[in-house]
Amino acid sequence: MELVTIGDIEQAAARIRAFVLRTPLIPAPWAGDDDRPLWVKPENLQSVGAFKVRGAFNAIGRLDESVRTRGVVAYSSGNHAQAVAYAAAIYGVPAHIVMPEETPAVKVEATRAHGARVVLCGAGQRERVAAEVLEETGGVLIPPFDHPDIIAGQGTIGLEIAEDLPSVETVLVPVSGGGLSSGIGTAIKALCPSARVIGVEPELAGDTAQAFRTGQRVDWPIEDRNRTIADGLRSQPSELTFAHLQRVLDDVVTVTEDQIRSAVAEFAYRAHLVSEPSGAVALAAYRSVDLPPGRTVVVLSGGNVQPSLLQEILAG
Length: 316
Hints:
The protein has helices at 6-16, 52-62, 65-68, 79-91, 105-113, 126-137, 148-164, 179-191, 207-214, 222-225, 239-248, 257-271, 281-288, 307-315, and strands at 26-27, 38-42, 72-75, 95-100, 117-121, 140-141, 170-174, 196-202, 251-255, 296-300. By secondary structure, it is an alpha/beta fold. It folds into 2 domains: 6-50 and 147-315, Rossmann fold (3-Layer(aba) Sandwich); 53-141, Rossmann fold (3-Layer(aba) Sandwich). The strands form 2 sheets. It has a 6-stranded mixed beta sheet with strand order 1-2-10-7-8-9. Helix 1 (6-16) packs across helix 2 and helix 7 crosses helix 8 (179-191). The longest helix is centred in the middle third of the chain and has 17 residues, at 148-164. It is globular. The model has no long low-confidence stretch (mean pLDDT 95). It comes from Mycolicibacterium flavescens (Mycobacterium flavescens).
């Protein structure tokens, strides 16, 4: 299996530069831990409110124009959907997005606002319905994580972290399908080889933590994974992403639902940043997991939270 390289990530950075925000690396003195000074990589500031725009622009930008004009198809619980819809609109091609019925309305509405056709499906049916849409439209699939171009695009975050804080010692990254953590891990290990890269996922969707311990992928029922408030972290790694994770992650840890909620509130009150639950798991781990000392970066992966849920969390 051919894995993504730092060269692939550097090429992706050049390809997407005109379309994607180079998010700042923000120091967080409010963290109050002298042994583990903290920086935040706020991908919620991207045009679609999440990191997914990086992989979407890289994957669509890599397509031959004759293929791209047939349109693109994606399946996603929300952030990848918005990213593909936005990138397709910029390139002027049709987008057909399959989304689970339980996806927060704010993400469905945002996807439609970019001009995409949204097809809703039942839990666990995204891939099957997307295959039907592909056959119907003749478009090309832009998967949420299971593709080298997606991994390389997401890896540009790690490239930026390494450029802005070459002395980084720990990077905490949310884990779901594994595209983000695969890409960031690949970049960090290439440019800051002594740094630790630690994946974080919800305890209620802790399949990757279990797989990392056993050395092989495990399958958790979608009903179990859907229990977590972190709706963007309910996917499971593919063979491709798990192979990357085994190579570039030092550990995978889990956090509870209460810890995730507390991290969302901390981002809002202390950093003045809006985070969806999925985007806050890295900060939750920083607060709750026994981690080594040293300069630490948490990746705030997205801020597309349902307003009513944010209000509920902030009300305590």
